[in-house]
Amino acid sequence: MSIDTNTAARIARLARIRVEERDLPGLAEEFNTILGFVEQLGEVDVEGIEPMVSVTPQRLKRREDVVTDGGQQKAVLANAPDAREGFFAVPKVVE
Prior knowledge:
Elements: H1 5-14, H2 24-42, H3 73-77, E1 83-84, E2 87-88
Antiparallel strand pairs: 1-2
Helix pairs in contact: 1-2
Enzyme class: ligase
Protein name: Aspartyl/glutamyl-tRNA(Asn/Gln) amidotransferase subunit C
GO molecular function: asparaginyl-tRNA synthase (glutamine-hydrolyzing) activity; ATP binding; glutaminyl-tRNA synthase (glutamine-hydrolyzing) activity; transferase activity
């Protein structure tokens, strides 16, 4: 597949990127280079290869999904300029 200047202009418009008319041939060339790399990837034989999520094999740490209140109410409210009855106190803004 080859990208011409008209297609490059359309892609730029769809991406809402302003590209000057004089820069369109260079942009089309860059698109063609990228497409060439993608075509090279398509030539690689990946038969029998497991898909990877990461380059290093590791398992994510897991914990039981339990709903809690966090147990840090006093610590959080300690940073508040004004706290009353276990809540943040703020000035009234609606009359």
